[in-house]
Amino acid sequence: xxxxxIQLSNQDFDDPAIHTAIDTAVNALxxxxxxxxxxxxxxxIAVRADDQNAIEHLLAAKNRSEKNPFTLAFxxxxxxLKFVPQMSVTAERLARRCFPGPITxxxxxxxxxxxxxxxxxxxxxxxxxxxxxxxxxxQNEFTLEVLRKADFPIALTSANLSGQVDSxxxxxxxxxxxxxxxxxxxxxxSPLKRPSSVLQFAKNSNIFRILRTGAVSKEQLExxxxxxxxxxxxxxxxxxxxxxxxARGILxxxxxxxxxxxxxxxxxxxxxxxTYANDFSPASSxxxxxxxxxxxxxxxxxxxxxxxxxxEYADLIYAMTPAHCRQxxxxxxxxxxxxxxxxxxxxxxxxxxxxxxxxxxTCARQIREALESEFTSSDFKKIVFSGLI
Length: 389
What we know:
Elements: E1 4-7, H1 16-30, E2 35-37, E3 44-48, H2 52-62, E4 71-73, H3 77-83, H4 89-98, E5 103-108, H5 121-127, E6 132-136, H6 141-149, E7 154-158, H7 170-177, E8 183-186, E9 197-201, E10 208-212, H8 218-224, E11 228-233, H9 239-254, H10 262-266, E12 269-274, H11 285-293, H12 308-313, E13 316-319, H13 322-331, E14 339-341, H14 357-375, H15 378-385
Parallel strand pairs: 1-8, 2-8, 4-6, 5-9, 11-12, 11-13, 13-14
Antiparallel strand pairs: 2-3, 3-7, 4-7, 5-6, 9-10
């Protein structure tokens, strides 16, 4: 029987038809049908992961070996944590930065509290043949809505015959599997036209290896895995640039390198931003003078505003005052746990703007003392250096 095809191209989410299509997809999955969904990488076949008949139907349709496990697809980290309740620091970092997006994480899921054990045993062997499962959050608005609306787990695999070329359009799916699947949602060509990159983490570890380099390169994956510390003030021309430069100097001294090589040798990203910053402003002249005297440079500094994307990306956020903390927490309440005020016991770091060089020197000294205290704490080392040094 030829698959039914539903066109999605050029429809927006204000159109009731798109929501009807979402309901159609969820109902089909609920009933154990094989549903082809678009993603940013290649088209995928989705099935209800707790339905043995659906899983076995999928195996037969793809002519796939039982030894190759299926990936589970989710709409976000909250769903993932039900199946992988204890993600390592690096795995959580990659998930936070790359989902939704073109990577698949293979992680340990054999803890007793994992929702994987709510699946029938005869199904688990197709999804978790050993102790790990593959996790994917595709970057396609329609498919994400299907995943959000479904109240059951969904397995997702490439829409092709096993060992054949991946399908990057609905027409290619029809040619390869048109009489083997039930429903195809046509959203035009896949933007990336390459499969996801696959990373496997060692059990309960920050150490990973790349099983497949797909849409994301090895260099990009390694960059995404690096911790990032963000310093925030108001205008990003005085306090936070000095904090960034001083942090680079302190970490260089702690680990026997030079400030210019901290990012490269320690694998740490250091950035600063401002809650009221304009793009492309240089550091203030007094800030540059004080940092030059300390053997550090702000010559290349260009201000940037705080954005939700930057806050989500950062692992630790050091604000200069409690007011900055509140501003960021209002912007994104879910990241409040990783925002800290420098020199909290003394009310934060006062703004030196408009003051003399001596005022800037006092400010820099206060920042340095606060950072030296922070960088020797066990919590800082756990968050920043786990799996790196």
